[in-house]
Design brief:
By secondary structure, this protein is mainly α. Helices cover 56% and strands 4% of the residues. The protein has a 3-stranded antiparallel sheet with strand order 1-2-3, with no helix packed on it. The radius of gyration is 25 Å and the shape is globular.
Amino acid sequence: MSSPDVLLERYLRHVGIERGLSANTQSAYRRDLISYVEWLDVQGVTDLSAISVPTVTEYLASLATRAENPLTSSSQSRVLSSIRGFHRFLVEEGVLAVDITTDVRRPKLPKSLPKALTIDQVLALLGAVSGDDPVAIRDRAFLEFMYATGARVSEATALNVDDVNAVDDAVRVRGKGSKQRIVPLGSYARAAIDDYLVRVRPMFAVRGGSTPALFLGPRGGRLSRQSAWLIIQSAAEKAHLSAHVSPHTLRHSFATHLLAGGADVRVVQELLGHSSVATTQIYTLVTADTLRESYRTAHPRATLKNQ
């Protein structure tokens, strides 16, 4: 069997040439796996067939407890993905008989609840863009759309004019895996988009090539994800919101406000385009926390008071 270093270089060439991964992804694989092979060498493991489940588990634990830059659970999980890819390649090449990494458990990720804006904060954000300037009209339509639909930023920037149904006040959104879903627009978003389509989009469109995109930049090209981020961040600054606000913040707020208003979790799942209801149910935890806090502060006998 070739040395681990030689096998690693073979795998990295495979990743770069045959799989066509980006330079950044290749760099991440190289960094993760060089560290892994160096650690194996220090442990005296020169025969990769001698690696066991405890070996890999011990390596991940060493990353979490090292003195400098200990890795979080999510970073350990990423490293495990790199190691699994390497071992899978070695099995496919006939170097190893079995891929033991399939039995290595991923580090448990802490549950992080999405941060949602309050309704008042959302209203302040939506009201922060005013005036008849063409860019302001476009930005207002974009912000109203994002909160009305809970769309991902990639979904919003990929929209075409034909995706908006004027009859049903709904929009066709293409989500992950090219799955399509129909999401209602709501009267505020519909009015803002109509205003933009009549007064601004034709003006922007003539400045660029022919594009079916719904949201355009002033030069006539499709609105980029980076520009979408800047629209929201600029509005947040104007609204004097101290919390970090991103496109995903509006998506979180959309889901949280729907559930708080009594919407069924499976309806919200469909609107968000989640393949599993378990993904959507994290928002019910946010709502439950909000309810508990409201109860604790408002009910006269929610907590014991010192006499």
